Amino acid sequence: MPNQSDDVAKPAQKPTSDEAVADAISLAIHEHRLAPGTKLGEEELSDVFGVSRTVVRAALQSLAHLHLVDIHRNRGAFVAKPSLRMAREVFEARELLEPRTARAAAEKAKSADIDVLKRHISDEHAAVEVGDQGRAVRLSGQFHIEIARIADQLTVADFIEGLIARSSLIIALYWRRESALCESFAHHALVEAIAEGDGQKAEELMRSHLVDLHSALDLRDRTAAPMTLKDALIP
Amino acid sequence: MPNQSDDVAKPAQKPTSDEAVADAISLAIHEHRLAPGTKLGEEELSDVFGVSRTVVRAALQSLAHLHLVDIHRNRGAFVAKPSLRMAREVFEARELLEPRTARAAAEKAKSADIDVLKRHISDEHAAVEVGDQGRAVRLSGQFHIEIARIADQLTVADFIEGLIARSSLIIALYWRRESALCESFAHHALVEAIAEGDGQKAEELMRSHLVDLHSALDLRDRTAAPMTLKDALIP
DNA sequence: TTACACATGATTGTATACAATGCAAATCCA
DNA sequence: TGGATTTGCATTGTATACAATCATGTGTAA
Fold this sequence. Notes:
The structure is a homodimer. By secondary structure, chain A is mainly alpha-helical.
């Protein structure tokens, strides 16, 4: 099996070295092997990847544009640590953009697209079975990206891709384990609606799916109460 | 008057040199001094700005992320030339995002914000009077960015900022001179609605304003007809 | 004359060296 | 001992040198 799809289909085009580095770091962030706040030293990375600091810097700047890393002038790059506010905003933006995208996808999807989506779901399910949660989160995100791609609106798809990248970080920070509802079901229903070409239904399903996701995060504001050490430490 | 506003208020923070270069190029693009398709040679730019190619490259990559320049591997950077399709998509995205943003702005605006908006309008009007069309277009864009800032949703505001940057390019390419309706009026009405805190009205006004803008562009598909030189040249 | 191949020049991609900045530990003074 | 200051080190910011790649123009052969 020469071209089997372990991951999503490669766009066929050898990535430049800085893109390769950026992808590797991005993947590590998505799979939660790099925790938010981790320092990303240039020298260290250039040793790891066997390239010069020049290309590492390019990769880091690229990731900074996606809000996956924060670069502080003269202090270096760190894995981004989205604030509660940012977390909320990201999901609000997704709730604004993705339902309409799902509708468009339902109206434009070809049968080949449906197949791709179904394969995503089974991959996702497999990852959950194995217990590889990082991979599951990443595949779940790529499912959403795939829908945006099917909708065939590059501009909005770009936005969504960025939002999903950040969502992965947010999930790493704010996910509450109690509500471990397997979201494969929601994805499955979505694919059904898209396969039927039912735009209305796809839009609704996507909206409720995102609301579920949003509410599965612990985005309550915890910073207000403990203003002082005394308040925080003496009950 | 020490702190008079020729431009928008500076965010107070010395920009790094690559940001300075990026801003200068961006400004030139926004004011249509650099036409779409123009080659941006690294050596040439490093001479112009008196910096090394290193910082020029960083600036160009930054602009590429905003879709203001296209970078072709081993061939260099060029001022982006948005396709008809991209042009349509950008305005569709704006019509999706900005009306809701205008509503949020109306609900959150403080009196200081209103003042800023009004000053934007008068600056814009002044530029039109002088006949500095490039500056007028840029200020018009910054008016929209200011509204997004007032709405206080950084994530969406970022998207809008990028969309407006591209809009300027699109206007340079596809504006049809006949429909030179001065859009200051639309902006003025918007500020009124925002000042009154009338979110509903602001949303509607923004929507119709964007539709007007969109329809003032010549986004008809002209590529279909003249497939051959003969068809194009012999009437 | 046209088409193709090759050589040459110009431009970008990458690596490395040096300068500037920030952080932290050590020092000095009260 | 406490605090401010200085000094040293580690890291980032910038410049430059070299390698790789692409575009252009020339020459030769069909």
